[in-house]
Amino acid sequence: MVENYKQNTNNLHIKKHMVDVAENRVPADLVLKNATYLNVFSSELSYGDIAVANGFIVGIGKYTGNEEYDMTGKIVLPGFIDSHIHLESSLVAPKELAKALISHGTTTLVTDPHEIANVMGTDGIKYMLEATEGLPVDVHFMLPSCVPATPLDESGAELDYKAIDDFYNHPRVCGLAEFMDFVSVVSGENGAIEKLVSAEQHNKMIDGHAPMLKDKDLNAYISAGVCSDHECYDINDALTKLRLGQYIMIREGTAAQNLEALLPLLTPMYADRCMFCVDDRHPNDILNKGDIDYICKKAIKLGANPLITAKVATYNAARYFNLKHCGAIAPNYIADFAIIDSFDNFNVQMVFKNGKLCYDGEVKPFETPIIEPNLVQHAHNTFNVSNVSAKDFKDIKHNIIGMVPGEILTKNQGYAEKVDIEKDILKIAVIERHKHTNHIGSGYLQGYGLKTGAVATSISHDSHNIIVVGTNARDMAFAVNRIIEKHGGIVVVNNEQIVSEVVLEIAGIMTDAPIEEISENLEQTKAAAFKQGVNKGIDPFMTLSFMALPVIPELRMTTKGIFDVLKQTYIE
Amino acid sequence: MVENYKQNTNNLHIKKHMVDVAENRVPADLVLKNATYLNVFSSELSYGDIAVANGFIVGIGKYTGNEEYDMTGKIVLPGFIDSHIHLESSLVAPKELAKALISHGTTTLVTDPHEIANVMGTDGIKYMLEATEGLPVDVHFMLPSCVPATPLDESGAELDYKAIDDFYNHPRVCGLAEFMDFVSVVSGENGAIEKLVSAEQHNKMIDGHAPMLKDKDLNAYISAGVCSDHECYDINDALTKLRLGQYIMIREGTAAQNLEALLPLLTPMYADRCMFCVDDRHPNDILNKGDIDYICKKAIKLGANPLITAKVATYNAARYFNLKHCGAIAPNYIADFAIIDSFDNFNVQMVFKNGKLCYDGEVKPFETPIIEPNLVQHAHNTFNVSNVSAKDFKDIKHNIIGMVPGEILTKNQGYAEKVDIEKDILKIAVIERHKHTNHIGSGYLQGYGLKTGAVATSISHDSHNIIVVGTNARDMAFAVNRIIEKHGGIVVVNNEQIVSEVVLEIAGIMTDAPIEEISENLEQTKAAAFKQGVNKGIDPFMTLSFMALPVIPELRMTTKGIFDVLKQTYIE
After folding, report:
1. Torsions phi, psi for B498 (to 5 deg)
2. What is residue A2's predicted lDDT score, i.e. its pLDDT?
């Protein structure tokens, strides 16, 4: 209570200054002069000087300020909001990603630290909260709902509803993240329902993840509390969910791209229930294409109304997540602006965050968040696993997991007893690396294309154990041991030599290295994989990382052996 | 924390039942069969069986239930939401008002207990919270922001931001009520700004009240945190506020009726930022015309789109007040339904609250809320004032307050030394009744029309002291003493006899009597006032009740004498 009153006194001074600036009794901290801006309330372009004080917009009209920028000929938009992104998918630390995002006009994002939580548990959530504190992009959180992702997963932690409960009180936590395990929800399993009712008790939002769920199952899933979906790749699926009250996050990421299919949503009847997200986006995509600005540009090119598109990119997500002062250009809203040249070109020219210029062709320096040493220590030591040897990957009879071109589905292709490069039958294995269980699951993989050496990665959804594929046992062991040695990464090996690698020393899934460096590094390593024969049509590492995901039919490689998703049994 | 987990366990059972019903594993508690219903998400009419469990909608499709109603030929709407109402203006206890409102389809309302708080302070807020607990209308609260309304008022309490702070934690408190004292806000006075920042700290909404405020003042007022306005009687005023981010509550009450002027707001560009309210509504208006249903009917008659109108009447207010499970027909929303015959007629035929039938031509019985005895005791004993005598109203020289037909404005009409019935110059007085100050302010009133006797009322905005007007001192004293004797009311007196009266024993402004009785009683008493000469063009009591409001020009009658609002001084 005393804290409240102190806070009140502090806020009192800020608010009085805001009122004084609005009343023109003192000059503004910043004025965007002659601004043509998106008015999200009346869905039109409005015009005026935009005055800013204490990081908030305080007036629109005729103002003077200590800092002024002429907006003539430009369009001022609220800063963009990415409604669903796994920061880990960028492979870089949040401070690095922030640099890239701010230059594309994203000033707010909502992340689900699902990947790092599956490695580090609540420490992973804490790490990401601290790693995003005070960045020039406001990072809000949805708490990971599925750690482990399924009962089959050997992840680094298990989080029930009690484990994450305290995080709801964090001012940047908006709710519970995508509830992937919809089967548990609709069948009413305690563990799942407990998490949902807990989020509702905290009056928070719950994100969904339920591709093609419908009829009674969809009613049950929504009744259970799930408010949104970002897995719609079909307009009818999206409309069914929207009509039943779910918000639709239109996703345009590196792997999944749904904008074109969902374009009819960007119309007056439906747009208010929609927002944009990237879900997973690789570093080179962010650098070369962008984030929400890229989605807007593409939507407008496809024929969407620019005002509607820009509102979906800003205001709507703020309303969904109840970010009260975010997503609009009006008094008492945070002074976050993405300034573009025109709706036709949609090039971000300047970006302001909390009323400070952050980007005008180059990103302005900002302070790096300080992370508690014990969390940093934990993040850099997540490999509790002994070195492996060639005999861990010896030739024995196993099923063959058959890759399907252009899909992450797989097929059961019968059995093999050894590698057969002619037939593109490779050895694949997943090595449990969190809890020293010595669990190694092995099998064969067809369709990957590797002709020599081995490829390994510690990014393997959702538990991020080490997954390795190779033409021979020695290179496989070498690759796995290299990843253990570096505490995480992606490596291409040939003849027990490192051909190319990306070190991912943070939880085995991210790095502190600059995003430009890691992007280049990743492309080089991909090239190395292709050079060793990996099929050109697939992403050598992303495809591999999904081979351990035990929810997608037909066969998956787990730490306990090959799992038949359709039959829900391990097979040998 | 332990409480949380217990609550979780309890909610777990409810949620599992909801999921089971949605999945058709068990029958629903209630099904509205073959329902054509308003889909607020896609702004269209949708169709299906609506299944209800535990008071929540859980599925739309094909369902069977323990209780079923065929909706063929009807239109099912979410229950209506009145976004701003002073319950006290109905003159009856909330349980009585609830009966009337539920029969008109209102299932949720947001009230500002401004009147009772000005009499009883925080006890008044507590009284209203308890008096509305568990009613078949969900009653949410905005905390009174202006107690007293102005520094000139001698009210029953003074509430600063600390006094109301704890109430923000009440689950039915949505924010801070209409901040009438906009002058203090835009001039940055501590007392006002403290209240606003406190509401923002609690992440709550702040309602506004600022007729015709514009330009820098409006920027300042909105920057200070005020989110809405219900005082727009002009479309340009409304559009200015809407474009600057305020929500517009379209008001259609007993005194102020703004719907017709604001009809252009009920269009796709603006409607999402609008809701409906009645502000103040007298019992006979509620009984004879209705509440939000009446506004909808009128809007549609005036040409508004029915789907937009119905959405403004339901969904929009729920979003503004962040009532997460309210205002829509979809899974996980509260099963509140107003069922009408057609958009053309807009007659409410059936009403369900929390999935229970409350009205089908008659209101179903419900439990009366239990109010703590000490609060009841306080509410019935708010008159701390000695009896008056004729000599308290003796003839001396005072200014004349001149009433203006059809307005609540007044004019300074010079001086008088005594009553002059020919010239329609009557004696007027306000008697402080909260704190035994013996303050009596006297003056003359022109334009009221009374020819004999006296009229007195303990409803006088905003402090609810006793206001009396009369042709002679003896009748004035008799009328005032009668009000003191009955602990509140409205009385018409002639020759020291009661001609007609309305007893308002709760805080001097409400009664426990049935609404039908009080409505009839009030009409009789009005008739008595007219019979004694009060001008037909005015409401004898409402008009009187505004004569003590020291914020409206030109002259006002206060407990300390006549106040010149334009000059901001007391005059003699």
Report:
1. -80, 120
2. 47
Distances, alpha carbon A450 to alpha carbons A466, B1, B538, in Å: 18, 54, 92
Give the number of other CB atoms < 10 A from CB of residue A381.
12
| Residue B512 DSSP label | S
Map residue A484 onto helix, strand or coil.
helix
Interatomic CA distance for residues B230 and B215, integer angstroms: 18
Q: b or e along A61-96 (b: 16 or more beta carbons within 10 Å of the residue's beta carbon)?
A: bebebeebbebeebbbbbbbbbbbbbbbbbbbbbbb
Beta strands in A341-436 (DSSP E): 348-353, 356-359, 398-403, 410-416, 425-431
Q: Is B273 on the interface with A (CB under 8 A)?
A: yes
Helices and strands counted in chain B (H then E): 18, 27
What is the predicted pLDDT for the residue at A409?
Answer: 86
Collect all residues of chain B within an 8 Å Cβ-Cβ radius of residue A322: 322
Q: Do B245 and A330 touch (CB under 8 A)?
A: yes
Q: Which value, in Å, is the radius of gyration of the alpha carbons in chain B?
A: 25
- CA neighbor of B146 nearest in space, from B124, B115, B125, B189: B115
Helix, strand, or coil here: B452? coil
- Residue A220: band (very low, low, confident or very high) from pLDDT cuts 50, 70, 90: very high
Decide if B20 and A188 are in contact by the 8 Å CB cutoff. Answer: yes
Cα angle B262, B263, B268 (rounded to 5 degrees) comes to 110
Distance CA B476, CA B455 (A): 7
Please list the ranges in chain B whose pLDDT falls under 70: 1-9, 572
Structure tokens at A116: 């790092």
The full DSSP string for B358-387 is EESSSBPP-PPPP--HHHHHHHT-----PP
Using a CB-CB cut-off of 8 Å, the residues of chain A touching B3 are none
* Count of A-B CB contacts under 8 Å: 196
Sheet holding A228-229, edge to edge: A228-229, A247-251, A274-277
Contact B335, B56 (CB under 8 A): yes
**Chain B environment of A16 (Cβ under 8 Å):** 188, 190, 193
If you average pLDDT over residues A332-356, what whole number do you get? 98
SS3 B437: coil
Contact B216 A11 (CB under 8 A): no
Query: Tell me: the pLDDT tens digits for B48-101?
Result: 999 999 999 999 999 999 999 999 999 999 999 999 999 999 999 999 999 999
A positions 217-246 inside 8 Å of B (CB)? 217, 219-220, 222-225, 239, 242-245
Question: Among candidates A532, A549, A555, which has minimal Cα distance to A453?
Answer: A532
User: Helix, strand or coil for residue A246?
Assistant: coil
Q: Name the band, by pLDDT with cuts 50, 70 and 90, for residue A151.
A: confident
Distance of CA A201 to the CA centre of its chain: 26
A145 touches A161 (CB < 8 A): no
DSSP state of A204: -
Residues B13-52 have pLDDT tens digits of: 999 999 999 999 999 999 999 999 999 999 999 999 999 9
The reply to whether A41 touches chain B by the CB within 8 Å rule is yes
Q: Is A496 helix (H, G, I), strand (E, B) or coil?
A: coil
Whole-number pLDDT of residue A568: 85
Among A35, A69, A65, CA closest to A51: A65
Q: Is the dihedral of CA A205, A206, A210, A215 positive or negative?
A: negative
**Are the beta carbons of B296 and B79 closer than 8 angstroms?**
no
Inter-chain contact A197–B11, Cβ cutoff 8 Å?
yes
Dist CA A458 CA B379 (whole Å): 69
Gap between the Cα atoms of B85 and B77, Å rounded: 21
